[in-house]
Each structure stands twice: as structure tokens, then as C-alpha cells.
Amino acid sequence: xxxxxxxxxxxxxxxxxxxxxxxxxxxxxxxxxxxxxxxxxxxxxxxxxxxxxxxxxxxxxxxxxxxxxxxxxxxxxxxxxxxxxxxxxxxxxxxxxxxxxxxxxxxxxxxxxxx
Amino acid sequence: xxxxxxxxxxxxxxxxxxxxxxxxxxxxxxxxxxxxxxxxxxxxxxxxxxxxxxxxxxxxxxxxxxxxxxxxxxxxxxxxxxxxxxxxxxxxxxxxxxxxxxxxxxxxxxxx
Lengths: 115, 112
Description:
heterodimer, A: about 120 residues, mainly beta, seven-stranded mixed beta sheet, four-stranded antiparallel beta sheet, B: about 110 residues, five-stranded antiparallel beta sheet
């Protein structure tokens, strides 16, 4: 069984450039989450979708960040324009929402470096 | 304002002994509690969970304890094995909400 797939695994870009991170959730899962991990703030939720609809984007740091989920098997997180402080590891996770359980399954992450 | 704290950034335990990882929280609305393990360059891996209606859940070598009155969660690993060396995160979600709030993590090192 394939887990959550993220691409690219590593991204190095210059300040001001657009960055697009991609995620394929586990087949059959109906919720998708984008997280960011930094030394200063730890692992924080940016946005999550349920049945392809954004439910909570309160963690998105600013308007430079946007996320889409056009279908059940694909999501993107876009940063435009990127800044050095966006350097972090970005994780995508998915889950099958069943009453009373909240297990999320994480992808391997994308390490973003903005110079 | 950190709602979820793991006060020990690191812990070293001899192989075969018990590892105890702790997590404290402030918000009484948290209803479901999970532990994740993370190896370098990988995403967090779900380990074990417990709902607020229970005070203990066991899965093999892993047991999670919940003390709601003290707002305290712990993970016991016994016996500890070298492959358990990783960073462990507690993660909490409120009733009726899928959002997880993660702790800061504890790096566990098992000494052979």
C-alpha cells in the first residue's frame, strides 16, 4: 500500500520565486492536512481539507500561502513570493474521518530552502 | 501560549528498561490523544492513541496513560529497544474536530 506521497522531497529556491509543493493522499482517505515544521515553532498545522473542501486555514501564515485540493487524490501548497523565513519542512498528512478516531498518516515531507 | 508541552527535550534509557515520555496540556477541551514517532528525514508515524473516556490503552510494548484531572499524558515503552530511538510527539485534538495540536517533542535515545 502506498502511503502519502509528497514531491519534491527537496526544494531550493531564491527569494521571490514561486514554490509549489505537491501531495497525493492515501487512497480512500477523505481528509488532508498541510503542516510546517521549524525549530522555532515545531510542527504546526497550516490548513486542512475534508472531502476536498478547505475546513480550517487559520494556520496559514499570510496571503503569500495558498492551498488547493482539486480532487480527492491531489493537493498543492503554493508560496508566492517565497521568503527565507519560509524555509522549513512541509508535511502533508491524510486520514479517514471516522467518528472517534483522529489518526493522521504523514508523508515524508518536503524540505524547502529559500535563499 | 503553548497548549501542549513536552518538558523533556531528550531522554536516554538503557536497552531493556522502561522508557516513559510525558506530555502536559492546558486546554480541557482536548478529547483525543495520540503519540507519534519520528525518525530523521521521515514523516511522523502514528504509534498509539487514547480517547478521553479511557485512562489506559495498550498495544504490545506501548502503553498510553491519560490523567484527565492532571491534564497529563504519558507513553510507556517496555522493554525499550534500539529501534525505539527517535523523536516522540504527543498530539491532541478537541471534541468533534480533526485538528491536531502537537507537543514540542522528546528525543529518545536507547543505549545498547
